[in-house]
Backbone:
């Protein structure tokens, strides 16, 4: 199949982010994710369906086809290797490389990408903790839960952080809420929406909104299902 346009690649990647390899993605949710109108998303989904990259369900949304999943994972691999290269080799701040990788992923050749991957040692995760699909499209899965849903007494390790909001990532970095950080949820005051955390020996008090986008692997203690 010939190379897709940037917009079509962005749609496939967004669909995978929202629905994974097989879930139905509502058109309205996809449009919101990409910052486009619902009619525009409908038109693009029709074009992707013609290329057999998605399966449409009119009035409901669409899900990726097997080929759509393959291409979406290839794009994720490309994006995450690029982020890792920008941080480890070029020394850029990991809270600022998402947008750069979004641009570069559509233009770097497979040969150059493979050289970058070798140079950074074939990493398993990107700087934000997201697993990097291997060359065969296989992704390591972990059972992660949102930090914003944790209960008092939970001990956990931060594994992934959402990488679409630079200002939020900068705040998390300053607070020590980075991939690999150990966290103790000391207290949760539900009615007041207050979380008291211990991160790296320091106490952090925040609301649930300030924790949205942080995924943890629990190490003991209670947590929300």
Residues:
């Amino acid at each position: 199949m010939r190379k897709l346009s940037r917009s079509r690649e962005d749609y496939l990647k967004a669909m995978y982010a929202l629905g994974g390899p097989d879930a139905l993605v509502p058109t309205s949710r996809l449009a919101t994710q990409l910052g486009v109108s619902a009619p525009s998303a409908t038109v693009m989904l029709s074009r992707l369906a013609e290329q057999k990259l998605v399966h449409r369900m009119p009035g409901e949304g669409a899900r990726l086809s097997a080929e759509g999943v393959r291409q979406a994972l290839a794009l994720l691999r490309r994006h995450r290797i690029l982020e890792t290269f920008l941080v480890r080799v070029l020394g850029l701040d990991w809270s600022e490389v998402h947008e750069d990788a979004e641009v570069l992923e559509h233009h770097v050749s497979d040969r150059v990408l493979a050289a970058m991957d070798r140079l950074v040692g074939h990493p398993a995760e990107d700087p934000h903790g997201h697993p990097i699909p291997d060359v065969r499209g296989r992704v390591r899965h972990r059972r992660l839960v949102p930090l914003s849903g944790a209960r008092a007494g939970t001990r956990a390790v931060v594994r992934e952080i959402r990488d679409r909001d630079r200002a939020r990532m900068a705040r998390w970095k300053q607070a020590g809420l980075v991939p690999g950080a150990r966290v103790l949820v000391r207290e949760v005051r539900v009615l007041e929406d207050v979380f008291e955390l211990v991160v790296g020996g320091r106490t952090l008090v925040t609301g649930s909104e300030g924790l949205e986008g942080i995924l943890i692997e629990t190490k003991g203690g209670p947590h929300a299902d």
User: Anything to note?
Assistant: Helices lie at 6-19, 27-34, 38-50, 66-88, 98-104, 110-119, 166-175.
